[in-house]
Amino acid sequence: MSPTRTPMSAVDRAWLRMDTPENPMMICGVLALDRQISVSHLRRILEERFLRFRRFRQRVVDKGDRAYWQEDPLFDLDNHLHQVALPGNADKAQLQQLVGDLNSTALDFRRPLWQMHYIDNYQGGSALLIRIHHCIADGISLVRVMLSLTDRTPEPKLKKVASASPVPARKQSWLQSALSRAVDNVQMANYQTRLFIQSVREEPNYPVKLASTAGEVALDLLKLGLAPFEPKTGLRQPLSGRKQVAWAEPLDLAEVKACAKALGGTVNDILMCTATGALQRHFAANKEAIPECGLRVAVPFNLRPLDQPIETLGNRFGLVLVPLPVEVQDPVMCFRQVQENMNRLKRSYQAQVTYSLLDLFGRGPDILERRALSLLSNKASAVLTNVPGPKEPLYLAGAKVTQPMFWVPQSGSIGIGMSIFSYAGTVQFGITMDKNIQADPNALIGYFQESFQALSHVALAGRQSELERKAG
Prior knowledge:
Elements: E1 5-7, H1 10-17, E2 26-33, H2 39-50, E3 58-62, E4 67-71, E5 81-90, H3 92-103, E6 114-122, E7 125-133, H4 139-147, H5 174-202, H6 206-226, E8 243-247, E9 251-252, H7 253-263, H8 267-285, E10 295-302, E11 317-324, H9 331-346, H10 350-363, H11 366-377, E12 382-387, E13 395-396, E14 399-407, E15 416-423, E16 426-434, H12 441-471
Parallel strand pairs: 5-6, 10-12, 12-15
Antiparallel strand pairs: 1-4, 2-7, 2-14, 3-4, 6-7, 8-16, 9-16, 10-11, 13-14, 15-16
Helix pairs in contact: 1-10, 6-10, 7-8, 7-12, 8-9, 8-12
């Protein structure tokens, strides 16, 4: 093995092998800026804050049964940072078209798997488009990495960057490697044994709880496997590989919180219900029958502590299948059903189960993962992410970030990705979908806003009526 080559984890390898021409496994972010910025200034920021993560200087070496990270000996930032300009008085539609075109283009596997495009002439300012392969890290980690490029004030404090040189690793023989793995396994077994004994001493009924948890995990695995396929709708069509994106004007986070308080739920419950209402309106507008059994979306569930700094990348999340009761027309009843579904999933082990399955698939043959992915992707109509962002405005190279948007890739036969991101007192909503899906992304964006306004109106009206009844 090359001294600068390190094995890829099984979970990261699973995401690497999910890459297809129809669904490139790229996490995409767009930062709209209120002014133009200096590209040389942006380069310095990337060199100091972005490239300190070795993964962004490493390319993937795929050996079929194994995959590795290897330092790119010809690494050049110019291969990854590009400058383009939109024509004329470009508006959001033109930026959306450019983002859709680039999201339809796979990354170059001969180099580290990321690219950035600095886009000039957008609404009097500029934008930064960021694309990173999912095998490098999960969406929450990469959003935090992207936001680490920003500052809380317009005047960033940059340090002189020393050129990074990889530390050569000592080459081990196969015998030394095998002995090292054996020692690690023995040490881990000893640690787990000591932990078990300590738990029994502190809590005598711990073995019973452990057995109960194992049973619940097995039950969640069985439920996942036996879940029926999604109903056939215009939202599930053969994929073309061409993407289109759209995003909405932001919602006021204070209004979302007021709605949640009025209904006795969480902000996440409100936004999931809003997404459900948007899909209801889509079916009505297209005169398509609403599935009586509802729809499901795959939602990434973070397994990494959010209060810990990002020191190492990689994927540490599972997926949960969230039912959306699109068949329930009454906004409050729909909210109650969404709330019940979310509470039930929070008590389940579905995220841990799917993470373990990804780890298992990453260690097995490619055909096994392909078949499992095909099976699981038939059980959701879309991927939906809801990521909490910074509460205060941020600045990139002196320019204010006016609107950030992020999308995770869709896998298998899923052709729709919905993204919810909170930022500086607002809630951003965006969507990406395959062009062959029978839906208009800009129309869905409008339905999302309509759905929230309808839910908020009913919730606040009900709250006012309750207050008046108590006062009377």
